[in-house]
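Quality-control log, excerpt.
Job 1 of 2 completed; input and output follow.
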Amino acid sequence: MAGYQVGAHALSGLLPIAKFSAMLQAIVVWRLELNLIELKQKMTSTPQREDSGAKTNSRYHYQALCGLVLVMEKHKLGGDYAIVFEFHDDIAVFDDPIAPSSVEFYQVKSKASGNWTPASLTKRDKAKGDDARSFLGKMYENVISFGDNVKSATFLSNAPANFAPDSKQKFCLTECDGEKLAEITKRLEEEFSGEDAIKSELLWVSRTDLSLDDADTHARGKLEAFVVENLGSVEFSLRALYQAISDECDSKSRAASADLTDFSDVISKRGITRADANSWLENVRSTVECPRWEDISSEIHLPALQKIRLSREWNTYRVAVLNPNEAIRKVRRRISDIINEGGMDSLSLNDLMLKVYAEIEAEARLELKAATDEQIMVMVLYETHSVK
């Protein structure tokens, strides 16, 4: 830095002020762009730390729900983000899904009873040799690996820490009393003997309010509040929406096929972004805005019994669409494409439904093996009312 300052002063004496200012601005932009490239390259080129123990389904699920809570918290703050599972830690939170400049790491640990102590967080398994890492040591390893790009590294658990200052639910290690901080710092210095000083200001401990015994109920309540906060008080199937979102988080928390050397692939297969959360909200909004069967039934001209079956499918599908599988998504996209191709403006709702049904039927039956005529027609009607 000193050399840079000397060089800057030297340049300022040789160049006009305007040109010198422009050069400095260009250097700052270059450094910012380099920083963005550096983080993506670091994340994809640094070897992943091996997980010391296989995760159970319940542990994966709890981790996924913790990630969901982080999605809702980040969404409220505005700006872009990417919540990524199993990428150098249980959860990594990037400030941007395409060109990140900072990352927050979360290590998720659940505990059926008791609390966390400085000793338990810094305990190393001696049977694994000198390379064994404590919980805090694993977190600090990321601080070293990713340097100035690390915004924080947090130990996240349902259990409290017995050394929390003023019984705080979330705190930085620098907030601890001197004795506790010295104890933790000493242990970390033993783990990382090559470090000049431990950056305890980057290490946090946080207690989640997701109950270990009933995490789904608590997460479902948070999701309902999230929808209301973004869309207002609306009627929708919370059960179907929660199932869809929790399944997506579960799937991404244990996705094994991601190419860890390709950042975009990691984001796609293991990440949840603002765009994903917006799509959840859009699904709810579309469902809410779709008319009731009573409002459109007079425009449908089919035999009586078929029309009755259609009405039943309509009411069923308005709930099911909040939790679709990939086959349904594929058929929905194709129906939407057909409608948006044009040539439908002069058609009545009944004629539009029959025209699109005729075009999509064969393709829909390939994707949805057991689909009935009425189910396909309902999908057409739903997409018709979802077109912007």
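Job 2 of 2 completed; input and output follow.
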Amino acid sequence: METIPRDLVKGRRYMNIVGMVCVVLLTIPICIYIYKSPVDGYRLIIDGTYLGYIEEPTEVFSFIDILKADYSNRYGGSVYLRNDVRLEKTVVPVKFILSSEDLERILRDNVEFGRRIYSITIKGRDVAFVKDRHIAIELLENFKKKVLKENGVDPLDVFHIGFYEDVVVKAYDSVDNHVNSIQEAMYILNALNKSGELSVGWTERVYFDEIIKRKDKIIYDSTLEKDKTKVISEGQDGIWEIYAQIRRKDGVEIGRTIIDKKVLREAEDRVVAVGTKERHTQTIASRGSSGMFIFPTRGTITSGFGTRWGRQHNGVDIANKMGTAVFAARNGKVEFCGWRGGYGNLIILSHQNGFRTYYAHLSSISVSKGQTVKVGEVIGKMGSTGNSTGSHLHFEVRKGNVPQNPMRYLR
């Protein structure tokens, strides 16, 4: 095996060392050149103050997003950047570019965040806070739908709904206020509604049927005696179909407007025959004391005994032209005649067995107090005095001063 001379080995080592030194000496200037040579970059300016250079804008905004998310996690609400952050494009030596660590430190020290929350305000008072405007608006809409559902109202039948109070959504910049959850805010609205501090009003469309009361049509039968009546035809009530708009406050009706109405079934009058056949005085007196009463006038019955317009109507109304004769319905004595409040000109006759008859709204009175009258005798003329909307006789039958249905005694 051939041996390499020692001097040759030493020479080769020397050459390697020299080569390495040359490479280093050549690299240093290149690195220095690169380090000092300008590159495209950006000047970072926050609120008008220059804070350094960066190479990539995304690096700045990524750090800001991280800080913003951290702030939102701690305080909630809609977080926004308070500062004016600007990047101006420039050429800058590499050595002046901020490192990631320095950039993060500068941003932490210089950027500030604000928290915007939204209050539901009723008559100027903040009652609940939520983190977003659309959450507040949606919460109020859902509360109105909830009230409709509780009152069994189909939202499709409602064409206007709102709050009676002044309800608005306001924005606040705040760190201290507690932000309510949706469940908490809804609980607050429910409590205010129950206490009467928050009311929901709406107008709904409704269709309903209403009875058209049949009327009594009087015909005169000369074959019947004066104190007798006979039902010729019972007739029937009619039906209205009504379309209305009803205004409600928390489900309670406060008003309505009739928009349209049509007749589904016409009302048919009940036809009653009233006898006109003259009788001997003795017969009349006998009938008049038996508990039966004759019709006190001629005309059409326009209103019966019972509830009318939400109030009790204590007699029957018989309409005819002004001045139509009014008769004593039974033998009796004039207990009162004259003006009495809503009755207008009134005659009260007392009869046997505790009966009294009332003849109201008369245009004139033909008897005097204490006078004895016979059944069928003219005692006055029909009129429209007192609380009256037209010429008619209001006729009552009372027993022991308790109003009775006159039709029970006229048949």
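Post-run check on job 2. Residues 30-35, 280-291 have pLDDT under 50 and may be disordered.
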